[in-house]
Structures are given as structure tokens and as C-alpha cells.
Design brief:
Blueprint (H helix, E strand, L loop, with lengths): L9 H8 L6 E4 L6 H8 L3 E5 L3 H7 L12 E4 L6 H7 L5 E7 L4 H5 L24 H7 L2 H12 L4 H11 L5 H11 L16 H13 L1 H15 E11 L2 H15 L20 E2 L9 H6 L7 E7 L9
Length: 318
Amino acid sequence: MSAPHTPVLLDEVIAALDPRPGDVIVDATFGAGGYTRRLLDAGAVVHAFDRDPDAIEAGCAWPETREDPPRLVLHPRRFSEMVASMAEAGVAEVSGVVMDIGVSSMQLDQAGRGFAFAMDGPLDMRMSREGPSAADFLNTADEADIADVLYRYGEERQSRRVARAIVAARPLETTGDLARVVRKALGYNKDSRRPGAPKDPATRSFQAVRIHVNAELEELEAALAASEQLLRDGGHLAVVSFHSLEDRIVKRFLREASGAVGRGSRHLPVANDTAPATFAQVSKAIRPSKAEIERNPRARSATLRTATRTAAPARKAA
């Protein structure tokens, strides 16, 4: 079965997970199933998570879900809930966990989901199709709260100006409404954009609102802790991220879990209560090749980090 998009750093992810026949592996971000397809082809049993009901519905058509026992088990839940969900499935530990963080190609390409401004659609952005939408947040939140979200999650330096413009323009109903307000507030003329000019500043605001609506960074932190709980001794973790906020969280988690943190001042006594490392063999940042970027422009901003679980007890419950 072919996926409707190209999974990023696929060969590198599969090499890091090193799937063997019978291995149980969690694909924490199923999407179109690009990683899952290769894992199944290697003989692994895959437990795939996705909070997007469209992804789960598409996955139900895969023949591996109907094998006895099934080699593909779908979990229509947030990946932060993987410990509880796997326990309900009778699985206490796994050989690998892979995460592809952020919005999927299918979500971006559907105007009705409201994730992108390339096509006008309802201002939604909810991965699960549940809870408050982007429009709900932008049309009801205080100006200061909107500015904080834009600055924290979109690294928008002029967040106060943009937030003021959003409040003045309310109600916002479509992705086009939001994009026009942001561009006007920042003096950006989309029609006169030249090759090599700065990217559309609406990108930053859309990223920020999407991350906030879906609590993406909090979910990532919880999912990393969950992977520490689930992975067996020698199990592999592979995380693909697409912007600095995500990668910073992954990098910090692996540094702390592997014990690769600063010793502090040389004038202070050495602490003796340091917990044993729960991850080892932590990779440096792995980037896509030039050839992959040419084949798949979405890969341009991707970063893969991998690590191997040790026998040490998990540091905290997920």
C-alpha cells in the first residue's frame, strides 16, 4: 500500500530502529503510515497512534489489521497516552518508538482542516477535530494571551502588534482572514514578493496558533517520557522534528536521560545522587541529504535524533 506523501528521513529512521521479525514497535505518529509500512515489511508488529480520526480510518483498510493476530494495531489516541494504551493492549515493553512531530502532509493539503493559508478554509487547526479551534482561541482570548502564544510558539518578534491587529479584526473565520491580518500588521505585500525575499510572516503565526491549539510541545514532552517507560533494554528511539522548538525539547530530553549534562561549577562538590542514564548511543542531529530535499522539499527543515534505551529504571512515570 503506498502512502499519499513521502515520509522524511525514512531510511535513516528504519536503520536506527533496526526492526527484526516479531519486534513490537510503536509508531507514535501514524499519519499516512510511511514508517509503519517499512516496519511491517521488516516483519515487525506495529502499534500505531494518531489522534486524527481520518488517519485512523485510513489505517483500518490495511490488511495487517485483519491478520490473526494483527500485525498492525491502531490506537486512536494521543501519543502522550501510549503507556496506558499499550497496557490496555497487554504490552508492557517494546523494541522501538518512532515519532514524526508536527502537522502531517495530509492535514496541510486539506483546506477544510484549516492548517495552512495556501488554500482558504475554516480557521480550525485541530488534529483531533475535538476541543476549541483556532478560531475559538483567536476570537475570545485576551490580546496579551494571543501575543504570548505568537511569541512563544512562533518566535514572532512583533507579537504584540500582530495580536493587537487580530483583536481589532475579530471575528476571524477563515485561514485567509488570519493570513491577511498578519500580513497587514507586518507590512508584508504577498503580491510583490520576489524570489529570495523573506518567507510569508503568516507562517510564524500559523505555527504558533497550531502548536497552542493542539498543545503540541506538552504532548511531545509527555511522549518522550512515555517512550522511556515503554522501551526495553536495548530498544531504540527515533524522533523527527521540524522546527527548533521541537528539536530543543528532544535534545534536552536525551541529554538529561543520557547523563550528558553540565557538571556545574568546579568549586562545588560533585553530586553523588545522579540517576543512572536511561538512554545511551545518542546520535548527533541527522539531516536529510541534498538528494532527499530535492525529491521531497518538506524534508528541508527535518532533524532526526536517535538513542538506545539502557537497563536503568525509567526516571519518572509518563
